[in-house]
Design a protein that fits this description.
heterodimer, A: mainly alpha, ABC transporter involved in vitamin B12 uptake, BtuC, two-stranded antiparallel sheet, B: 267 residues, alpha/beta, Rossmann fold, 6-stranded mixed β-sheet, 4-stranded antiparallel β-sheet, binds adenosine-5'-triphosphate, binds magnesium ion
Chain lengths: 343, 267
Amino acid sequence: MDQRSPTQSSTSAASAETWSHPSDQPWRRFLLTNRAALGSLAVFLAMLLMFTIANPVVFTNWTLYASVLTTLPVAIFLTVPLVFIVTVGEIDLSFPATMGCAAWAFALVVQAGYDPIIGIAAALVTGAILGWFVGCLVVKGNLSSLIATLGMNFVLRGIILIFTEGKSISLPSLSDSWVFQLFSSELYGVPVQIYWAIAFTIFSMFLYTRHRFGVHIHIVGDNPDSAAQMGINVNRVRIGAFIFVGIGAAIAGVFSTMINFTWWPTSGDGYLLPVLASVFVGGTPTWGGIGTVLGGAIGALTVSFIQTGIVGAGLSGFYVQFFNGLIIILSLLGHRWNQIRYR
Amino acid sequence: MTERLIELRDITKSYGNVYALGGVNLHVDKGEVVGLLGDNGAGKSTLIKILAGAVKPTDGEILVRGKSVTGWNAARSREAGIETVFQDRALAVQQSIVRNIFMGNEQGNRLGFLNLKHEIAEAGRLMREIGFTSKVFTPNSIVGQLSGGERQGVAIARAIYKQADLIILDEPTTALSLTETAKVFHFVRQVRASGRSILFIGHNIHHVYDIADRFVVMDRGKVAMQISRDKVKTAEELIWFMEQIAHPEHKSQNAKEPALKRKAGKL
Ligand SMILES: Nc1ncnc2c1ncn2[C@@H]1O[C@H](COP(=O)(O)OP(=O)(O)OP(=O)(O)O)[C@@H](O)[C@H]1O
Ligand SMILES: [Mg+2]
């Protein structure tokens, strides 16, 4: 046999050429990696353009945007962590009740006369513990997160209602504290909560793509078996995602209580569907492994804007649901082209 | 006396009432290449998954550098200096090449933030080393876009990055072309030359015969034979041994026939 066997040791080393590829150019890389987020931005801008054409007077006036910016931060603090949980291949429908519980803890502490910063700490701890509990229930109990978290949402809301008997807590003293200045005043005519929401989004973007936690979220959502074979603690990553949702919900609860000076037992209830929609309008696919934090934030902006926008455009409030649904479906169709699922 | 890197004692593994492994003893010494052979379903992959910590044994003991370990799992296995190329490659195909190469071994600072620049440079170096011929791909390319052999290359690159003491290769060359296969064997020799060990599973007995120092043949969840390289003169003899294990009834019929002649007749 004169045929050379591959096991013979004489093998030439691979030639070391320098590699270059069009996608290595920074701006093309940026476009490629952020195409889902950019798509969401395009949806938002198209919607804005539509509204402006329909009613140029209202949509060139700042007051309309100011009212959107008041409700937007709460939505962002709920949507961004939800991108993490969808990426890891789970879903959390218990965040509205977690938000209610965490805000309840905040309200009780402030009502008892403590500094609101202690209230915020209490809310964060409550959110994290509830997130951990829900996560353990799903992961250790090996339950479907869709059903289990839906159940937890009812259970937690039920607990609130049982204990408060539906009574709200008003916190008029809140406006005197330095915490209120820091988290709920205005800066340059914009609610200061917007700056916190932007900071949170940027921090989460780094967490999502440049931190071990976010990277493990991607891998576990992509292929949990591979992740486990490579020594990643799959359960811990999943529970971590639930804890992150709990923390986001706690901040959202505190912020919304600060805006209203009142905690209601229904706090968080209305956010379930709009926030879920925001994640997917933002360009994160349903199957896990990939997603976009920036897109999620833009999705939250889009969804928050629809309601204000439709009324501002001169349509009656009866149109809100119809256009809400239309935007969701159109953006899902739009995201089809950049959501390639590799197997 | 060479240093015993890893040892498995009386490992059993049952799936329900099916025994994939029924009491296996195996050891790998420092600086040796062990070839693990056996029919499909013999339990080779199950055995190495236990070594890699990906599967928990039903019973048995694992010793690393002479010390019995408890709570063995995949992370512990990698910490102990064992890297594995699994038969199914264990990739996350929606992620980039660099993310797959550093899967579970992300390079970053103490706060957990990654050093992407370093990772991408290292991934590029590894890709050149294992000879990615298509220049279209960069470390940021998505693994799902790669061909089967290229994906396998990513899994191999991941295993060689850490300079591990023991590298387990479960059929590493099945999807590879001749050139790529040659690179894998070249790499196996390099590892041995540097005093580290390899556990190699393969179905091409000629290849395994060429590179391994010792052969372990498995049959239906048991180690049927262990023989060192110097006791086997040719690959044909090894094949004949394996046939004896698979079809022991032939032995009595053809006992007087010389091994090599019988072998030649069969091929
Ligand atoms: N997860 C599992 N559940 C049930 N049975 C399993 C499982 N994994 C392996 N087995 C069984 O264990 C036995 C050994 O499988 P294993 O994958 O170790 O074989 P192998 O020697 O690697 O074969 P091949 O050469 O085909 O890769 C097989 O009979 C298989 O059916
Ligand atoms: Mg196998």
